[in-house]
């Protein structure tokens, strides 16, 4: 089976997060491969260029149909074969959320290096909710932004025409408003790994190799590694939860910043932690929302050199 990297066409679709893996069935017409989406009355077409067959994940999918059906033309089949339809349902907010995010320092109109912003975007992605990012230059904040965020902080999201700040508040509100798929972490597990980030910052800023900050970080990472060994692969067991979406971006910053400024990396002996990081960092939702390496390095420079 071949997964196409690009597809395009005239559709009634709106960009949004990953919806579902679709196993698409062949039809009989020997024309350019295409995808038909129908609700029994209306129909839209997406043209793409797969090989003989296709298994694909359609990303950022939202549509104005109820209970659409999928029909694909992938092969030149004999005319006696009838097309087959498979039903799927798209469950999604119809209007994208507006989210104020930190802008990149290194590339125009790219997402910057705030781990708290990425936590919010990860939540939106994992819940299949569409969003539009508004890039804010935190070194030169626009007046309109300061009016809605007097403290000049991101992330900010608009709920029902009201701007809401703080990643804790935002992610909790998203969980309450859109409980499916569930991401809530049980209270007894919600603080697992929470000491890693401040300990990492202490080690990163340290100028004294003998001040114990490195050992403190290793201790926290080791405790988390032991937890994963007994309870993993994720904080809440088999499925990703809100606690992972909060910790993942912080571990991403840890890996890049310590690697650059301290030439330090997570010890190989912490194999469960390293596997956890690799899994989280490779998720589509994470790849879609991560900061550029260069931005993470620039973002921490003042903390290290200041």
TrEMBL record:
Highest rank taxon of the organism: Eukaryota
Gene Ontology molecular function: glutathione dehydrogenase (ascorbate) activity; glutathione transferase activity
GO biological process terms, semicolon-separated: acquisition of seed longevity; ascorbate glutathione cycle
Transmembrane domains' residue ranges: none
Domain GST N-terminal: 104-182
Reaction(s) the record says it catalyses: L-dehydroascorbate + 2 glutathione = glutathione disulfide + L-ascorbate; RX + glutathione = an S-substituted glutathione + a halide anion + H(+)
Entry keywords, A to Z: Detoxification, Glutathionylation, Oxidoreductase, Transferase
Family: Belongs to the GST superfamily. DHAR family.
Name of the protein in question: Dehydroascorbate reductase
Protein's organism: Heracleum sosnowskyi
């Amino acid at each position: 089976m071949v997964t196409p990297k690009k597809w395009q066409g005239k559709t009634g679709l709106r960009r949004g997060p990953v919806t579902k893996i679709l196993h698409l069935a062949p039809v009989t017409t020997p024309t350019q491969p295409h995808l038909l989406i129908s609700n029994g009355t209306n129909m839209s077409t997406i043209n793409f260029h797969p090989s003989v067959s296709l298994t694909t994940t359609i990303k950022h999918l939202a549509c104005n149909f109820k209970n659409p059906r999928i029909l694909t033309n992938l092969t030149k089949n004999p005319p006696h074969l009838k097309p087959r339809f498979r039903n799927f349902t798209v469950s999604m907010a119809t209007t994208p959320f507006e989210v104020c995010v930190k802008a990149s320092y290194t590339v125009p109109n790219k997402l910057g290096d705030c781990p708290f912003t990425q936590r919010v975007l990860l939540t939106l992605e994992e819940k299949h909710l569409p969003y539009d990012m508004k890039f804010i230059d935190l070194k030169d904040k626009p007046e309109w932004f300061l009016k809605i965020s007097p403290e000049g902080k991101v992330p900010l999201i608009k709920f029902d025409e009201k701007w809401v700040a703080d990643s804790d508040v935002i992610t909790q509100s998203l969980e309450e408003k859109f409980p499916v798929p569930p991401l809530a972490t049980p209270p007894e597990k919600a603080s697992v790994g929470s000491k890693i980030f401040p300990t990492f910052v202490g080690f990163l800023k340290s100028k004294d190799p003998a001040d114990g900050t490195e050992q403190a970080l290793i201790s926290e990472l080791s405790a988390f590694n032991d937890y994963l060994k007994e309870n993993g692969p994720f904080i809440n067991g088999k499925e990703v939860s809100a606690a992972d979406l909060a910790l993942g971006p912080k571990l991403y910053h840890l890996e890049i910043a310590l690697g650059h400024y301290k030439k330090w990396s997570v010890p190989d002996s912490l194999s469960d932690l390293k596997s956890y990081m690799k899994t989280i960092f490779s998720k589509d939702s994470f790849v879609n929302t991560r900061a550029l390496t260069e931005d993470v390095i620039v973002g921490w420079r003042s903390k290290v050199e200041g």
